[in-house]
Specification:
CATH class of the largest domain: Mainly Beta
CATH superfamily of the largest domain: SET domain
Order of helices and strands: EEEEHHHEEEEEEHHHHHHHH
InterPro entries: SET_dom, SET_dom_sf, SET_domain_protein, TPR-like_helical_dom_sf
Strand order of the largest sheet: 3-9-8
Number of domains: 2
Number of helices: 11
Distance between the termini: 58 Å
Helix content: 40-55%
Protein name: SET domain-containing protein
Largest sheet: 3 strands, antiparallel
Number of strands: 10
CATH architecture of the largest domain: Beta Complex
Pfam families: SET
């Protein structure tokens, strides 16, 4: 692997925005080292901003090992020790590749490129996380934002898995990271865990239906109703703090609306997606800036009236301050 397939190695920089630090690294029973809040942290707070130690693409273990060995030699001794102190779930003859595979976070949603951080990689997993990690492709920095209020003494957590019922999550976490999750969700009594599993399975089912382009084309009303159903399930499972899942839902609803020419609803959905993303990643990422622009000018989206113009002349109806339910039903085109 050559330097064209990975960004240049640089010393990790913890760019802590607040003084004193809002967290400390501590040994967590049955988890190893984790980060614990030193103060109450409000929702939407930037907790950590950090540059990567190493960035690389996945590859054959031997090739990745050679690449990382070369890149590690460019780091100072302190940074080398930081990398080597991270957990390796794949011990063997490729220790550097094992550490990278165990700890790397993707540099953006769906990216094959991964990065390792000395502080952020200490954050443990929870299936009900209180924080969100985000890669900023402009600044090349990873951030951690609180997506729900965090109490002093509470562990800071992010989500490692891709969702689904507990059996799927546990198998994935065991294979990739070598641990059995015992978070507040997974340690519920069996009856409550079954209810949670049903909700999370329903979340995946609805997400798949919403992403179906043929349904969006032929039955956009059904797609919007699925968005509304998904919002209810997210509230039931995650309470008032669904985080990035809410941002994605509202952006999906935006895309459904704008593809059929409904600028009125599209603008509202884009604004809701923007506000949800602010809580997860702040206002500096290119994605947040783009969604903010679409809230003001939804017709700038490339799919404006790509499917039809059937909703082109939609006008916003008037609702009283206490008519939240009526407004939501109008917004998602629920007539009965």
């Amino acid at each position: 692997m050559d330097s064209d397939t990975a960004s240049k190695t640089q010393n990790s920089i913890l760019e802590q925005p607040n003084e004193p630090l809002m967290f400390e690294a501590k040994t967590i029973p049955l988890k190893g080292i984790g980060l614990v809040a030193l103060q109450d942290i409000p929702q939407g707070t930037l907790i950590i901003r950090e540059r990567p130690l190493l960035v690389a693409r996945p590859g054959a273990p031997g090739a990745l090992e050679d690449f990382l060995s070369s890149e590690l030699k460019k780091l100072d001794k302190a940074s080398q020790r930081q990398f080597l102190s991270l957990h390796n779930n794949f011990p063997g003859k490729h220790p550097f590749a094992g550490i990278m595979k165990t700890n790397a976070l993707p540099c953006g949603s769906g990216s094959e490129i991964g990065a390792v951080y000395p502080t952020i990689c200490r954050i443990n997993h929870s299936c009900l996380p209180n924080s969100q990690n985000t890669w900023n492709s402009d600044t090349k920095i990873e951030t951690i934002f609180a997506i729900r209020p965090i109490k002093c003494g509470e562990e800071i957590t992010i989500m490692y898995d891709q969702g689904g019922p507990s059996t799927v999550r546990q198998a994935s976490l065991k294979q990739s990271f070598g641990f059995k999750c015992s978070c507040v969700v997974c340690s519920q009594p069996p009856a409550l865990l079954r209810e949670s599993d049903a909700r999370r399975s329903r979340i995946q089912q609805l997400d798949g239906q919403i992403g179906d382009p043929f349904q969006m084309l032929k039955s956009p009303e059904k797609s919007l109703k699925d968005c509304h159903s998904l919002l209810q399930v997210l509230k039931a499972e995650y309470g008032a703090y669904p985080g990035a899942l809410a941002a994605r839902l509202y952006y999906d609803a935006f895309q459904i609306s704008i593809a059929h020419g409904d600028k009125t609803r599209a603008s509202i959905f884009a604004e809701k997606s923007y506000q949800a993303r602010l809580m997860c990643e702040g206002n500096e990422t290119p994605e947040v800036k783009r969604v903010k622009m679409l809230a003001t000018n939804p017709s700038n989206h490339s799919t404006f009236m790509a499917y039809s113009s059937k909703w082109k002349n939609t006008k916003k109806e008037k609702f009283g301050e206490d008519d939240n339910e009526a407004f939501e039903r109008w917004l998602f085109r629920i007539s009965n």
